[in-house]
Design brief:
The protein is an alpha/beta fold and 234 residues long. The chain contains eight helices and four strands; from the N terminus they run ααααβαβαβαβα. It binds iron/sulfur cluster.
Length: 234
């Protein structure tokens, strides 16, 4: 509950910061045009409240387009150094907001054929000699990395499975498979940008663990993906 309210505060806070500039401009223009202090202030406040209310409508699922989430995200990104926010705070806000909406809005169950499990190549153990980005099936399930377990889960749910070597590769995979549901594993940056990119496809984001630092022998708990698939699939 505490995490949920922290995410909401961040999201609405980003929108509040964004609304300061247009509100101030309207206020100053109206003052200069002789509209009077109260009218100018009221107009500025209307803009501020309109942006906040649009944010609430997106959060409650009434508005589906993620433009307002993008605005909050990029505002927080710009203000991150000034506000001394920990690394990847805006990215984690996008992922949490998206997952919450995906769960609350999911009124239908998907089939395995409509589902894509998309994972980054850094999950593969660096000593593994197989070129999985071309053919994940060449994995020998040796247990040194989570790919083998993920392939087992993929088979159980009869879903598509792909390994992306980066953002462009992930985009191409999504264009080729045209899934209705994506269960995506990635780092905060790739995951947040990918989520904002693939709208209106329903996406569930799972962060990879950096046991050896970023982009190197990363890890994901297969049970997390399994739980997401059980929730969304028929
Ligand atoms: S589980 Fe598969 S991908 Fe991972 S190291 Fe073993 S053979 Fe390579």
């Amino acid at each position: 509950m505490e995490v949920k309210s922290k995410i909401n505060t961040l999201y609405q806070g980003g929108l509040l910061l964004f609304s300061i500039a247009p509100s101030a401009i309207v206020f100053l223009v109206l003052i200069a045009a002789g509209a009077g202090f109260l009218w100018s202030l009221a107009s500025a406040l209307i803009i501020l409240f309109a942006i906040q209310i649009t944010g609430l409508l997106y959060g409650s699922g009434i508005i589906r387009n993620p433009l307002i989430l993008r605005i909050s995200f990029w505002t927080l990104k710009m203000m991150q150094p000034v506000l001394s926010m920990p690394d990847h705070t805006p990215e984690k806000m996008v992922i949490a907001m998206n997952n919450r909406k995906a769960i609350s809005e999911c009124s239908r169950k998907f089939t395995g054929d409509e589902t894509l499990i998309l994972v980054p190549h850094c999950l593969q153990n660096h000593e593994c000699s197989h070129r999985l980005t071309f053919n994940p099936e060449s994995c020998e399930r040796c247990g040194k990395c989570p790919i083998g377990d993920l392939l087992e889960i993929r088979s159980r749910f009869n879903a598509h499975f792909a390994i992306a070597s980066g953002g462009t590769s992930a985009r191409r995979i999504v264009e080729r498979i045209e899934p209705s549901l994506i269960i995506a594993v990635a780092c905060p940056v790739d995951l947040s940008l990918g989520i904002l990119d693939v709208h209106p496809v329903t996406t569930v984001g799972v962060l990879n663990e950096w046991r050896n630092g970023p982009c190197f022998d990363t890890w994901v708990n297969p049970a997390e993906l399994e739980a997401a698939l059980e929730m969304f699939l028929q």
